[in-house]
From TrEMBL, chains C, D:
There is a cross-link at G103 (Glycyl lysine isopeptide (Gly-Lys) (interchain with K-? in acceptor proteins)). The modification 1-thioglycine is found at G103. Belongs to the URM1 family. This is Ubiquitin-related modifier 1. Keywords: Cytoplasm, Isopeptide bond, tRNA processing, Ubl conjugation pathway. C-terminal thiocarboxylation occurs in 2 steps, it is first acyl-adenylated (-COAMP) via the hesA/moeB/thiF part of UBA4, then thiocarboxylated (-COSH) via the rhodanese domain of UBA4. It comes from Hanseniaspora guilliermondii. Signal peptide: none annotated. It is found in: Cytoplasm. One of its GO terms (cellular component) is cytosol. One of its GO terms (biological process) is cell budding. PANTHER family: RURM1 PROTEIN. HAMAP family: Urm1.
Amino acid sequence: MTDTLSNEEFSRYGRQMIVQGISNNRDPIEHQLLLKSSKICVIGAGGLAAPCLSYLAGAGVGEIGIIDDDIVETSNLHRQIIHSTSRQGELKCNSAKKFINDLNPHVKVKTHPVRLTNDNAFEIFEPYDVILDCTDTPMTRYLASDVCVLLGKTLVSASGVNTEGQLTILNFENIGPCYRCFHPKPPPPNTVSSCSMNGVIGACIGLVGIMQAVETLKVLQKVYTKENFEPFMLQYNGYMDQSLRRFRMRKRRSDCVSCGDEREITREKIESYEINYLSFCGSRNYDVV
Amino acid sequence: MTDTLSNEEFSRYGRQMIVQGISNNRDPIEHQLLLKSSKICVIGAGGLAAPCLSYLAGAGVGEIGIIDDDIVETSNLHRQIIHSTSRQGELKCNSAKKFINDLNPHVKVKTHPVRLTNDNAFEIFEPYDVILDCTDTPMTRYLASDVCVLLGKTLVSASGVNTEGQLTILNFENIGPCYRCFHPKPPPPNTVSSCSMNGVIGACIGLVGIMQAVETLKVLQKVYTKENFEPFMLQYNGYMDQSLRRFRMRKRRSDCVSCGDEREITREKIESYEINYLSFCGSRNYDVV
Amino acid sequence: MSQIDIKVEFLGGLDSIFANKRSYEVKVDNTKIVTLRDLIFDVIVKDLLVNPEENYSIYIQDETIRPGILTLINDSDWELEDELDYILQHKDVISFTSTLHGG
Amino acid sequence: MSQIDIKVEFLGGLDSIFANKRSYEVKVDNTKIVTLRDLIFDVIVKDLLVNPEENYSIYIQDETIRPGILTLINDSDWELEDELDYILQHKDVISFTSTLHGG
Ligand SMILES: [Zn+2]
Ligand SMILES: [Zn+2]
């Protein structure tokens, strides 16, 4: 683990380092170094990722990977506040990298300008400690979850449409439930809504992205432990009143084909496309927005 | 009211315009034009204002004033994500203006590089429809509230320290309670904590700033009306579990010296410093951070 | 008591097939409506679901709540309770939420 | 019933003078502890407040909760109830929150 902070880092992170009572009695420097030595990978650089990346970079996460092959468009800018009008037409992952580098040059950013597929998911995820799902389709959510289970990585998963959002932590430290535990069967494709069809209030999805940053900090700084972690889902709604509900969720299912006692999902089956997420989830055309 | 949207604005705001069920049955274009014709003024360009300004600018508020005489420092950047390492040493209001202009050039930004005082508050607030309090001291909170009452402006007020934050709407449409209704007497100065002394988790104060943006949108787009508005306070906490509480608050106090039946606070008394907020709140030295 | 009060909530956009109302207070005779299954099939589908010919399959599939919808009993995943066989109690809050996929 | 359960919460940093605990479950004899005033002065100040010599004035001033602290009874401002004279009920949630000033 990285074992020192520079004077610049002390003044940069000082205000968060003096917050008491959240570090499990760890020394504040050690608590900060846990972030500095962390590597996270964010799938998607859109409405959830924009604030989530901002605050995780601001807080001093050591290394951030960003997977996105989309380019910045006008219709993104009401909610994807790390991009800008002058960067329209650029790859979102590159635009995000510029934002992060200017906010906090201590953060190492690696861009992955590709779509996550059966082929590349293992290779991309492997170097990172924690994966953040900020994507738009059930297909990618099943793929990301299966790969995280097989690689033993915690997945912080968020989503939002309209004025609502959801957030959960999957495969926590390889003991928590995975996406398939919650959703053994995929939803029929005609019931899945996206931001481009249903719309989204920028601030509402932004709030969910920040909640995702807060939960990721708790994972990286070991505020959550195998002993105290309880599966949950947070559900936010912005209108009419703002509300945040916390649902207590199931533990791992012993019959889960991904993380259960008799696992059917293997790296080989994924990489050979024997497991086909498109046919599993149905053939509607999902836009990642 | 501005009465048209350009094609660029249609594609920029399209995703939020198609969100159903929050516009009080208004036409989506009319609903968007309510934002375009709005003028808001934000006191402070720090940890709350950073995300709040981002999403209000992204959403297409027509004109934004920013009052702040501080300069960008390293210790701000973990939470004040609209500023950047390359803009250290610049006035925060200028840095914020650059951010907003690059995110959404349709927004007109006016900077007020001053501290809010008895002298300048009326003149600064007068052109704006809604004021946002993102400051750090009880003094400024009383001043902003008194001036809003006297000018008949709604005040969206937020604050945060450590992992917690609070949010309320004051003097709503000149019928809701003001800051003095909630706090007839100021707190003893030794009991007030600030971000620089007590620390703050960037994402936690950021979340409160986004909640403030959501509430401001409801005010500007007339989702709240004199008929349906009920005084409330939202209280967020980020650790251990993220939670959001909604407290039902008192209505206007008839004996309030600012907004009650027999008002003692006048513009003249404020501008002549007969009302002295510093001696009212006590003499501790408050840093605006 | 034979009459009990149940709060039923439709979140995550599901309210669109329940008259755009996110929350209902229903009174049921719990000599007849005993389990969550009874509530779903004898009350919610019959009294609350709008335009059932079109919307039934958005809510129900294979005689249970369709995949992609989570069911919560007093803010707990119904898998932690008895799912469809859960015995309703006075003042229970039953929530259904569609899983969101926007990002 | 003479014994009632009350949940007492200290928010907005107030937990720092209550052993850093945000939430307490207290059982009180409500033949003796009748009003919120009784709860505050005969239970909270005596049993929960840490180091009263130093911390009393952070919590109490002029025989009431000090300015800058809001008191909530079941998530409602105590001004909507009877403030100190409020009659405690079984399962009440009494919350105190310091007003925050960071920005
Ligand atoms: Zn599983
Ligand atoms: Zn007042």
